[in-house]
Amino acid sequence: MDVRLGLTDPNDDAFPLRWGIIGAGQISRQWALATRACKGATVSAVAARSKERAEDFAAQHDIESAYGSYAEMLASPDVDIVYIGTIHTLHKEHVLLAVEAGKHVLCEKPMGGESADAREMYEAAARQGVMLQHGLWTRFFPAVEHARWALEQGMIGDVLMVQADFDAIYTIQAAVLAFGIEAMPESIVATSRHGILGYSDDRSAVLSFIHYPSEFAEVTEIIGSKGRITLEQPAHCPTTITIRVPQKVPSRYMDANTPAPAHRFEYPTPESVSIPMAYPNQQGFLYQTEAVHRCLAAGLPECPQFGREESLYLIDVLEKIQKIRKGHASST
Predict the structure, then answer these.
(1) Could you tell me which residues come within 8 angstroms of residue 100 by beta carbon, excluding any fewer than 6 positions away?
(2) Can you tell me the distance from the alpha carbon of 11 to that of 293, in angstroms, rounded to the nearest whole number?
(3) Which helix (H) or strand (E) holds 143?
(4) Which of 99, 281, 312, 316 is the most buried (most CB within 10 A)?
């Protein structure tokens, strides 16, 4: 999206940045292996809860420096930007440490559990003049970028409904992608496994928060007045998008049960990335890292794929849903 909008140079994934990692867990491992394929990226340091844990991680991933202190790593002049891969309850603490040290930050999702915390983090980054990028990697996948472009073009007409199943943050972001951030949902109904967001003009998002283990579909459908966009499984990191725009809507009822023509577009994950024992499509972390490099090369404070305003909007909605699910508030 940053390239499509003319905000960055497509070759600036080679812009040099030295990365430090906070957290030596499974997500950090997979992120580090994907990031190595970015032309300008050097993963130069890692910090963990103990020096031994950090040294083990560094040895496994050929990282030069290992620290048992987050503050010590953040004081290093050899670190330009920090990836935060710790558990989400520690994200605020670690983000504030990093930005106060003058480092750019890419923070794993969810960046904050409460909107007030997220706003505090963004304000701290603005004061320091550094990037704080919410690491919702879904938004950087080419299939998702294609979906956003198709929506902008009005290809499926007015969006009427979103249907998505998976974790709450991923399904909510699909609704945000489709409906935008101009207005909050007029109503929110939530249970332990479902959420319904009601928007003006009888539009809605029907979200399912799936059980583990189960053979869930994990598909996102964006249904419009003229057609439909499908982000195929796994929809939170999709490699396939299908767009259906029939001559008559609804096609099966208006065209003798003839299904709408399906235009399928494939975006395989980068072959330059190899991640043993990876979660689905973790190779796609590379898309996010490359965008961060391009945007910092252009002097941008964020990546347009998922900027501050969308991030805060999503966190606001997520917070409302979580409070309802926990019984701390009624649906509104």
Answers:
(1) 124, 128
(2) 10
(3) helix 142-152
(4) 99
DSSP state of 225: S
Of 239, 209, 223, the closest CA to residue 144 belongs to: 239
Q: For 56-90, write each residue's pLDDT tens digit.
A: 999 999 999 999 999 999 999 999 999 999 999 99
For the beta carbon of residue 70, count every other beta carbon within 10 angstroms: 24
> Which candidate, 120, 331, 136, places its Cα nearest to that of 237?
136
Query: Phi/psi of residue 304, each to 5°?
Result: -65, -20
How far apart are the C-alpha atoms of 135 and 295, rounded to whole Å? Answer: 14
Of the candidates 75, 77, 81, which has an alpha carbon nearest to the alpha carbon of residue 18? 81
The single-letter DSSP state of residue 259 is: P
Tens of pLDDT along 294-309? 999 999 999 999 999 9
Select from 105, 104, 99 the least CA-distant residue to 124: 99
Q: Of 298, 15, 13, 8, which is closest to residue 131 (Cα–Cα)?
A: 298
How far apart, in Å, do the first and last CA atoms of the chain sit? 34
- CB atoms under 10 Å from CB of 117, counted, come to 18
Q: In this structure, what are the phi and psi dihedrals at residue 142, rounded to the nearest 5 degrees?
A: -55, -35
**To the nearest 10°, the Cα dihedral for 116, 118, 122, 127?**
50
| pTM exceeds 0.85 for this model | yes
Domains observed in the chain: 10-138+281-307 (3.40.50.720), 142-266 (3.30.360.10)
* CA atoms of 124 and 112, how far apart (whole Å): 14
Q: Say how far apart CA 189 and CA 193 lie, in whole Å.
A: 11
